[in-house]
Design a protein that fits this description.
Elements: E1 11-14, H1 22-27, E2 32-36, H2 40-45, H3 48-58, E3 62-66, H4 75-88, E4 92-97, H5 99-111, E5 134-138, E6 150-155, E7 160-165, E8 173-176, H6 186-206, H7 213-235, H8 240-251, H9 268-280, H10 284-298, H11 304-315, H12 322-340, H13 356-370, H14 374-377, H15 381-389
Parallel strand pairs: 1-8, 2-3, 2-4, 4-5, 5-8
Antiparallel strand pairs: 6-7
Amino acid sequence: MYNFEFVLPTKIIFGAGEVKRVGEQAATFGKKAMLVTYDEKLVKDLGFYDKVANSCREAGVELLHHFGVQSNPTAEQAASGIALAKKEKPDVLIALGGGSAMDCAKFIGVAAKYDGDPWDFPTGKAEIKDSIPVIAVVTIPATSSELNGTAVITNETLRRKDGFVNPIMKPKVAILDPELTYTIPIRQTAYSAADIVSHLLEHYLGHQLSFAPYQDHFCEGGIRSIMECMDRLLVDPQDHDARAVMMWQAAFAWNGFYDCGFGLPNSNIHILGHSLSNFYNTPHGAAMSVTILATLRYYLKERTAKYAQMAREVFGVRDKDDMIAAQAGIAAMEAWFKKIGAPTTLAEAGITDPDAIDKMAPDALKTAEAWGEVEAYGYTEQVMREQFELCK
């Protein structure tokens, strides 16, 4: 294992009905909070807004609002939230939603404390030194954004989707109330499952350690737990236990914990997937199910033994030949995505543009460059193109 530091400063409040404590938690930061969430009508129709607003009112916390966060949050949409935060100076931000709402709140939080162009943070031109504290109230468990210091934002003007990381952006409190997930449609739940699996797989498949049983088994067990949850949710989308387990597993798939000691990850799945969302607004989880399969196919010969291990431990493949087992594992992953309703090809994800790969390949290379992985993993525009071809 490589040397590492790991800090998880976020207070976690888990359990059915615990959303009622958001006001109490907000009050520990001050008397004014700003809600960052999706379309106003949606969150009010689902009852989410009233739960947060009533809790804040009872705690004596004034609630400001920034509605309209998109599934792939943009710098342009966040601008009004940044302006509001600078003007009203809330003591805390409450992100209500999934990764998009949380990432938008993180972006607003750091931008409100900065006088320059907020896009300086995703590009690394400015160092994050301060942020408005964030409370994450999770309604769509998938990204681990409630426990990590990562934010992913799209700049529509520049046609770039970039992620940036700083521990200052880790939420101060994460409220994980499984009851808020009961109304998620099963297709969106499938996208969430694919996203969770992508986070578990990326470090598992790409690390170079010859002996990492703890981390490997954490990943393998995590994927199996998500599969078991989805089996139950396909029968009963409001299965309370499955929703709770899925929410907890999502929080720990990509918060920096399980991959401690792995070193630089190979983020191939996300490098490709960001371009799908950037150009075609593909839901993040839907992009992941497509690019997981492309990544598995591209590195099959290089990672045969690892794929065989995954096939045996996750899907119960028993063939002793590693290549046969590895191929069976990829086929099993594809079959599982089809079973739960996640796309497995660009076309199934709604991308039929004949020029799609021409647009996405150079964009993906820029992402690999921004994440410092080009030299380590030999990325070129041609490599990106070949991998996108495997998404068809």
